[in-house]
C-alpha cells in the first residue's frame, strides 16, 4: 500500500492526524474537509482523494 493509499484509507475511516506545529499547517476532517495553511488561509477540498494528495505532498515536502 502506498503512502497516498494509506492516507486515503485513514481519511475514509475518519482519521486525520496530520499537522506540523513548526510550519503551522493543520488538516481538519469534519463537516468540511480543509487545510489551515501557513498564512491562516483555509483550503477546502471537494473530495477525500484531493485531500489525501495534499497531505501526501505535505508529508513529503513540509508544505
- The number of helical elements comes to 2
Give the beta-strand count.
Answer: 4
* Largest sheet, strands/sense/barrel: 4 strands, antiparallel
What percent of residues adopt helix (DSSP H or I)?
Answer: 25-40%
Topology order in helix (H) and strand (E) letters: HEEEEH
Domain count: the total is 1
β content, as a range?
15-25%
Which blocks of ≥5 consecutive residues have pLDDT under 50? none
Strand order of the largest sheet: 1-2-3-4
Based on CA inertia axes, which overall geometry fits? globular
Q: What oligomeric state do the depicted chains represent?
A: single chain
Overall SS class: alpha+beta
Overall radius of gyration: 11 Å
Mean pLDDT over the full residue set: 87
Explain the overall architecture:
By secondary structure, the protein is of the alpha+beta class. The chain has one domain (3-61). It contains two helices and four strands; from the N terminus they run αββββα. It has helices at 3-12, 48-61; strands spanning 19-20, 25-29, 33-36, 42-44. It has a four-stranded antiparallel sheet, covered by helices on one side. β3 and β4 form a beta hairpin.
Amino acid at each position: 500500500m502506498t503512502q497516498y493509499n494509506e492516507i486515503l484509507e485513514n481519511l475514509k475511516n475518519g482519521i486525520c492526524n496530520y499537522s506540523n506545529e513548526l510550519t503551522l499547517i493543520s488538516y481538519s476532517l469534519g463537516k468540511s474537509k480543509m487545510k489551515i495553511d501557513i498564512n491562516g488561509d483555509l483550503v477546502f477540498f471537494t473530495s477525500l482523494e484531493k485531500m489525501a494528495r495534499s497531505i501526501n505532498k505535505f508529508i513529503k515536502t513540509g508544505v
